[in-house]
Write a structure and sequence with these properties.
The complex is a heterodimer of chains A (about 230) and B (about 110). Chain A is built from twelve helices and no strands. Chain A has about 230 residues and is mostly helical. In chain A, helix 2 packs parallel to helix 9 and helix 5 runs parallel beside helix 12. Chain B has a two-stranded antiparallel sheet. Chain B is about 75% helix and about 5% strand. With about 110 residues, chain B is mainly alpha-helical. Chain B starts with a helix and ends with a helix. Chain B has a domain of about 40 residues. The chains are: A mainly alpha (about 230), B mainly alpha (about 110). Chains A and B meet through helix 1, helix 3, helix 4, helix 5 and helix 7 of A and helix 1, helix 2, strand 2, helix 3 and helix 4 of B.
Chain lengths: ~230, ~110
């Protein structure tokens, strides 16, 4: 694996493929939930092709589906995309120099999964890290969009979303995205307080705003460093 | 402009902003984002937003608090996540739980 060339069956490629299929498969839930939230199939596909970051996409349709304004949907989606900016910085030693269309495309596929697989490769094997990033990023992009289309078709055929439990499925999807980030103690506290703040504000504020208010909890939690033994979530 | 068109505007705006953030990350000097406070807040923002979205999606309806079949569904989801089940199974099990409870007549 020390060479610069891609080799079939390399650990980076195997990880990329399994992550791509596993992540792509839940594009089915996104497609179906987006239709249930009131978007049409074209809008659903546009979100997967153009926005292409799972948390932001689920947030966008969650706010719209709850009757929130398009502005609240954009702001919530953007807040959830901030971490992708930090991934670009973390990937600098792996990917730079990047220029032109290649850089534009690298930006598009900079997500949780491509970053995780890239940085999971050994520190001294830059070629393997680069391979992990590109294969995972492009792989998730392909599978995520294909499965979104399947989900949108299913969602359009189903009818009343609550009857099939799709509202509960959306809640479970957010829980599934949140779960792996709850390791550190302070992350658990932030999650609990944020959910309670959003629930408390729901009866008094327009849809979408209570979720944004939870950002204040994050700012308060991150202002001072946690005890030295504890990690901060990515 | 009607609501449908505004949704399209929002989709394009969200996509441009998301891509812009990603592109900026690949462009800035590496030293720029080393401020640990910014790093911490960004990490907690993801957790805070996802938790708030979960709470609102699981326990509210039409702008008010609501407890219904979704409670049992997310409890099933939590157990499956704790048992390290794959994402698709967690989502599917939650949908089936809520659908089954509503089929027998619960809200």
């Amino acid at each position: 694996m020390s060479g610069g060339r891609f080799r079939p069956g390399s650990p980076a490629r195997e990880q990329a493929l399994s992550v791509s299929i596993a992540t792509g498969a839940y594009g089915v839930s996104f497609g179906a939930l987006s239709i249930a939230a009131g978007l049409d199939a074209w809008q659903t596909m546009a979100l997967s092709l153009l926005l292409f970051t799972g948390g932001s996409q689920f947030a966008f349709i969650g706010v719209m589906g709850a009757g929130g304004s398009p502005i609240a949907a954009v702001v919530t989606s953007t807040f959830l995309g901030i971490r992708n900016g930090f991934y670009g910085v973390a990937l600098a030693p792996v990917l730079r120099p990047l220029r032109g269309p290649r850089k534009a495309w690298a930006a598009q596929v900079t997500i949780d999964e491509s970053t995780a697989v890239a940085l999971a490769q050994p520190h001294d094997q830059v070629a393997a890290r680069r391979e992990g990033f590109w294969w995972t990023g492009v792989g998730v992009f392909v599978f995520w969009n294909a499965f979104t289309l399947v989900g949108a078709a299913l969602g359009s055929a189903l009818g009343d979303p609550a009857r099939y439990g799709l509202d509960a499925a959306a809640a479970a999807a957010f829980l599934g995205l949140l779960w792996p980030r709850l390791g550190p103690h302070r992350a658990k506290v932030v999650a609990a307080v944020s959910a309670l703040v959003a629930l408390a504000l729901t009866p008094v504020l327009p849809a979408g705003i209570p979720v944004l208010a939870a950002a204040v909890v994050a700012i308060m939690a991150g202002w001072n460093a946690p005890p030295a033994t504890e990690e901060v979530p990515d | 402009m009607n609501a449908y068109s505004w949704t399209w505007v929002a989709i394009v705006a969200a996509a441009v902003l998301a891509w812009g953030i990603k592109f900026a990350g690949h462009s800035v000097p590496e030293s720029w984002l080393e401020n640990p406070r910014i790093h911490r807040i960004a990490g907690y923002i993801t957790v805070a937003m996802l938790a708030a979205l979960f709470g609102v999606q699981a326990f509210t309806s039409d702008g008010d608090l609501a407890l219904d079949s979704r409670l049992a569904a997310v409890a099933v989801a939590a157990v499956l996540l704790w048992r390290k089940a794959p994402f698709w199974l967690v989502v599917l099990a939650a949908a089936l739980t809520a659908a089954l409870l509503r089929w027998v007549g619960l809200p």
